[in-house]
Amino acid sequence: MRAKIQTDTTRREAILTGPHAAATGKSIRAPRHQAAGAGHEEVVRLLVERGARLDWKDVLWRATPADWAKHAGKTEIEEYLRRKVEGEKRE
User: Fold this and answer.
1) pTM, two decimal places
2) Structure confidence at residue 9 (pLDDT)
């Protein structure tokens, strides 16, 4: 169990500190889109906290992370992301 926790922590840190962590560019496989579509809520929240742009669309589908979450049926993540985007617009 401890090894699994360490592996999960290592993966999480790689995502959060890698070159695309809070990527501000457009990408086919941006972590924010992948995490939203896969239902990884903790990773989505951490990426948002680290400043990931939520309004940018990926190159392949021209969809935001919230759109990916919607497509995958991840309603809670979709709603969270849409609230965050609305909050950014107000600021």
Assistant:
1) 0.70
2) 57
